[in-house]
Design goal:
By secondary structure, this protein is mainly β. The protein has two helices and 17 strands. It has one domain. It has a 15-stranded antiparallel beta sheet that branches.
């Protein structure tokens, strides 16, 4: 059973690759979301193209760079035609489909709610990243079925019991993930593409992401996408 207290130490120390000591000092307004297990996953995704969904509701797309102390660098994505900059969108789905383009983005690891990695063909937060029918999703209400909102520790325990099932979760920042739940360990949950269908929330073969920084409010990601979720930001579960 997950012990959420593991993720709330005032100072977290671990050794990366047996040589370099790294400290996370919880000295920011976001300290309650600092998660060493998620930081370890981020280290393993270095140089991969990822979509970062942040606690503040914004989103960043690019290639993961170095992680120092509590800060991680995002660089321009590689292997995608026409992409030469890091793409950022604030939490407003009604904004035009033009992203804010920067050469580098540095973010506090404590601000990361969800990390999505997979075979990106287009930047997922721009208008060009939407599926042909993607714009139609934004005007619908989510049919979530049974919803549970409880104390966070109880939610994590409930989530553990749902490993292998198709579910949706709600995360601080206005984010919703729908798909097949994989391993739940300590303070991180892994999601993959759905294996059943539930109207809008879950799609067979896709990882569905809803949130305020996405054009139209939703992005179905078809293919072998994976999402690591910071369970310190978990607020609700949805059972189709």
């Amino acid at each position: 059973m997950a012990d959420s207290n593991i993720c709330k130490e005032v100072t977290i120390k671990y050794i990366q690759e047996g040589i370099k000591e790294v400290f996370f000092k919880m000295d920011s307004a976001l300290h309650c979301y600092c998660n060493r297990e998620l930081a370890q996953e981020l280290r393993g995704l270095r140089d991969r193209n990822v979509l970062l969904l942040l606690i503040d509701g914004s989103a960043v797309f690019g290639r993961l760079g170095r992680l120092e102390d509590r800060l991680i660098t995002v660089l321009p994505a590689v292997g995608i035609v026409g992409v030469t900059a890091v793409r950022f969108r604030p939490p407003n789905p009604t904004l035009p489909g033009v992203d804010i383009l920067v050469s580098e983005f540095i973010v506090d690891v404590c601000d990361i709610a969800i990390v999505v990695e997979g075979p990106f063909v287009f930047p997922p937060i721009s208008e060009t990243g939407k599926l042909a029918s993607g714009g139609k999703y934004g005007g619908h209400q989510m049919k979530a079925g049974k919803s549970m909102v409880r104390q966070q520790s109880e939610l994590i325990e409930e989530l553990e019991e749902l490993e292998g099932q198709n579910v949706g979760i709600v995360i601080i920042g206005g984010w919703v993930i729908g798909g097949q739940l994989g391993e739940v360990s300590d303070c991180v949950a892994l999601f993959g593409p759905g294996t059943t269908a539930a109207p809008l929330l879950i799609t067979i073969g896709a990882l569905n992401v809803f949130g305020p920084a996405l054009v139209g409010g939703v992005q179905p990601m078809v293919g072998t996408f994976r999402a690591w979720v910071n369970l310190l930001a978990l607020t609700g579960l949805m059972l189709p």
